[in-house]
Each structure stands twice: as C-alpha cells, then as structure tokens.
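USER:
Before I trust my own judgement here, I would like a peer's view. Write it directly below this note and I will take it from there.

ASSISTANT:
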Amino acid sequence: MSELTTIEIPEETPFLNCKLGREQYADVLTSIVRTNTDGFVLAIDNKWGAGKTTFVNMWKKKLENEDFQTLYFNAWENDFENNPFVAITAELKSLLGKEKSVTFKKVLDKGSKIAKAAVPSILKGIVKNYGGEELADVLKETSKGVLEAFEEDIKSYVERKQNIKDFHTELEKYITENSNGKPIVFIIDELDRCRPNYAVSVLENIKHLFSVKGIVFVLSIDKEQLGHAVRGVYGSDKIDADEYLRRFIDVEYSLPAPEIKDYILYLIDVCKFNDFFNLSDRKNSELSMDKDNFISHSKFLFELKNPTLRQQEKIFRHVGIVLRSFSGRQFIISELLIYLIYLKLFYREIYSQIQRRELSHQQLLDKISETLKGVLNENQSNSVRINIEAMMLIYYNQYLDHSERLTLLNHLNEEDKLDLKSHFDSQENQSLLNHFIRKELNHFHRRRTSIEYLLTKIDLLEPLQDL
C-alpha cells in the first residue's frame, strides 16, 4: 500500500489497526504452517494492490509473537543481484543472530561450492567460438579434447549433485537448531514485480536448493503476473504457466476481498474526509446529506467496477486533495467529484471528450451508460446509476457554450418524458431520471453549477496524488 495508508503494526497486537478483518485469515494460515512441519511452499495469490504486503508484515509479527522464527525477503528490492541463491542464503544468516555458529559456517561452505560458476567445457567453448562448416573440422581435430571435456562434465555433475545433498543436510541442521521446534517461515514478497529471469530463478532455487524439512516459504504474489514472467523467460505464449508454477507451489491461498463499504469508511477516516463533511457550513445546508451520498455512490461504483484496494485508495487520495482545495462554504457535490475521478482513471477517453465539450446531450447519456454497465446485485439500487446520469446531464449542460445549452425543464413534456433517453430505458427509469433532474434543478445553486470547476481542480491537482 502507499504511504497514505501505511499502517502502524504494534508489537503485541499486530492486527490492531487492520480495518479489513484479516486477522482471521492469518490464523488460518498459521494453523496450516503449524501442522505441516516437513516444509512446503505456500502462495498468497492476489492481484496487485490487494494489500498483500501489509498483510504479510502483520502476519509475520503475529507469528513471532507465537514463537515462530520468520524471515522477510523483498525480491523486487534485491533483483539487482543476479544470483538469488546468494541473496537467499544471506537472509538465512540473520536467523537468531546465529551467523557465527559452526552450523552456519558449514552451510556457507557447502553453499559456496554450489554458487561457484561452472567452468565451461572445451566443447561449449568450441561451439561458441566457431560455426558453420568450420565446426566439423575443429571437432575432428579436437576429438580427444571433446572426450576429456565430456568426462569433466560428468565429473562436475556428480560433484554438484553431492554438493547440493551436503548443502541440504547442513541447512536442515541449521534450521533445526534455530526453529524452536516450529517451522521457520520465510516470506518472499514482490516476486511478481521482478525481472522475469530473476523471478524464475528464485522459484527454482527455492524448490531445488532450499526445500528442506522445517522451512516454509510464503510467496506473496499475483500469480497471473508471475505467469507472464514465466512465459517471457521461455519465450512462448504457449507455455502453460499455471502448470509450470504448480511444480513450485504446494498450497495456494487468496485473501478474501474486504467488504467494500468497510474499506470506504476506512479510507474516509484515514483521508480525513470527515473534517470536510462535518464543517458547519455544509451540515446546515442543502449538502447536509453529502457524506451519505458520497458513500452510496462510491460503494455503487466500486461494486460495479471491482477496483483493487490500491485503485480505490488512488481515487480517494485524489478526491481528498481536491476537497481540501475548497472551503466549507463552497458548493461541492462530492458524489459528482468521485464519479469524474472514477471516469478519469478507468475511462480516460470519455473523460477527455467531456472535458473538450465534444458530446451532444444524448451522446453524453450514451457514454455514461458505457461506464455504468454491469449486473446489479440484490443489494444495489438502480437509482444511483440514474442519479449519476441526471447530475452529469445537468452540470455538463451548464458547461457547454450558451448557444448549445438546453433548458432542461422545457424538455420534460406534458407526458413527463424527456426527449433525451436514458440508456437504461424503461418507464420506471425514465421517470426516475426526470425526477432527479427536477430535484436538482429545484435548488438555486445546483441549477447554476457547471462541472468546469471540478474538472479544473481534478486536472490541476492530479500530480499531487502520487506524492
């Protein structure tokens, strides 16, 4: 998560400040680790921006409080190191401060033999330096050297195989010495953000070199993105990345998404929106329901689009910057603001068309419908969708040049039908659209408001959201 939502993790109660109810999932994972002492690889698989890093750091502290030994390795921060074997071994030396122990010295000794670069054989050198027709002549003249090189390769293979076995033996002893009778939990984070070659090399090292009794590797990943890395390494979209990753991952777990409203309330709190919503000038005006409307519209949009936690946070961060640029006395429709920022993030071309005044009134309604498509669940009301149409129609109309504006009330004819059609066309929805238009236009401030003041602020302050 970004700095905006960096969460303090108290030593004794690491999940105290978690607003997503995720401690229960940490308990589930702890029980899996506790009952599988032979060692395995666990993948926590969620999309980027789902809060995995925050979760694994809270879980790490909770494990330590329950007397587990833990290690944390940010693969992305270490992918400058071409040999992940060295980087992972280096992390192990910090275990209980035992880097000077006799056992760890043996681990280093056996590991150094694996880490040494293999001496290229004579045959490989020949193939690299010669080609074409010359190759046959060279091989003919050096058949004795080729045979010697082949024998050397066999010898190196046998030695390397024994070195790996010796390394496993010493590593397992070291793990047993420092584990308090419980598996050591080695968390590897951000693997899916690494260079493809490095990410795949980390997986192969874990499986083939570090897979010993008493150590549990936890991969905090977006499996889909890691699959792209696998295909990139092998240079083919035909590679079955899921099947490949299954060779390295023993258990998969996905953190359930939090309740959207709970996360919205958390973001409102952490972004200090209440300081704005509770200003007396707003509480005692026609904007007294501002906060409730903002929550209902945010919830509707997020349930419709299902953005990641990071995307939700980005939208709220931008909303907060814009809100703080206004005073409490200024007329701000917060639910319109979040819809425009939502548009800019997910439908930038439509946002730009609105900004450039390129759309007719009916085209505007058609475009809005594209952004609000989706099957409503049983807890969602269509009224929010129609209300967004009504607000955008009114405030876009005020944004147009005077000659292009409609007198919207005159377009509600005697049959109470608008000449402009909602894409969500039904008699009920059309009446609802008319209702919202009349309701908005009955307020002096609203019928004089344009979206221009919000568009200007959104674009002017956008660079600040990533600071």
Observations:
- Strands lie at 41-45, 70-74, 184-189, 215-221, 251-253.
- The chain has 22 helices and five strands.
